[in-house]
Design brief:
- The chain is α+β, with helices and mostly antiparallel strands.
Length: about 220
């Protein structure tokens, strides 16, 4: 069922091409000929989203947690989801990524979803395009943000990758942005690691206290 919904979304995306914005929106995201930026808040605003066509492209996107992702940026492939996740995908017995596919949208519509294999963990992508489409078959619905990327290590022919839902891919750590702020969990793990280094006399007390003061606001949620 999930794959059917994704395919329907891809079909809508492949048939839509441009962007229509009101004058008030233009002051925020640019002009119709040169759209520059979109934010997570805008994608969830129905009054904004209803004026945006599927496949509209942007130069940058500010995520829910405030990270700015731009065309030309590097993204790192994380790890596939755990077996317990509702989004986990398998091809046979092999685990694959749930929100990253090989190829572009056109190939997915014609030949089905070809999920990125787990062996791609740790590789890097270069962002080529940032685009949006509606979450339902209606313009009166929020937008999701997708990314078309390239693996710079591979030959240009056939190295296209598509992140179908960037927010979910980031949330579930399938994709990691080097520009993302440290999470509370990451800060706690970093502090624990530093305490171990202190106990092993691999870090000075001063270095530990300095790091602790930097991490404390993140851990406290300040």
């Amino acid at each position: 069922m999930k794959k059917l919904i994704l395919l329907l979304t891809l079909c809508v995306l492949s048939l839509s091409v441009s962007c229509v914005s009101t004058s008030s929106e233009m002051s925020t995201i640019g002009t119709a000929d040169k759209v520059t930026k979109i934010t997570y808040e805008q994608t969830q605003d129905i009054d904004f989203a209803k004026n945006i066509n599927n496949s509209t492209k942007y130069n940058s996107y500010q995520t829910k947690n405030g990270t700015l992702i731009k065309v030309g940026d590097t993204l790192i492939v994380g790890s596939p989801l755990t077996d317990e996740s509702q989004y986990t995908e398998f091809i046979g017995t092999h685990k694959v990524f749930s929100f990253i596919i090989l190829g572009g949208m056109g190939m997915a519509v014609m030949g089905g979803l070809n999920y990125l294999p787990a062996t791609s963990q740790g590789t890097e992508f270069t962002v080529e395009k940032i685009w949006v489409n509606h979450t339902k078959l209606s313009k009166n619905s929020p937008l999701l943000v997708g990314v078309t990327a390239r693996d710079p290590i591979l030959p240009e022919l056939g190295n296209k990758r598509t992140i179908m839902d960037l927010e979910k891919a980031l949330l579930l750590r399938e994709i990691i942005s080097p520009n993302a702020p440290m999470t509370r969990e990451e800060a706690i793990n970093k502090l624990k690691e530093s305490k171990d280094l202190l106990d092993l006399e691999m870090m000075t007390k001063e270095e530990y206290e300095t790091l602790k003061s930097k991490l404390a606001p993140i851990i406290r949620g300040e």
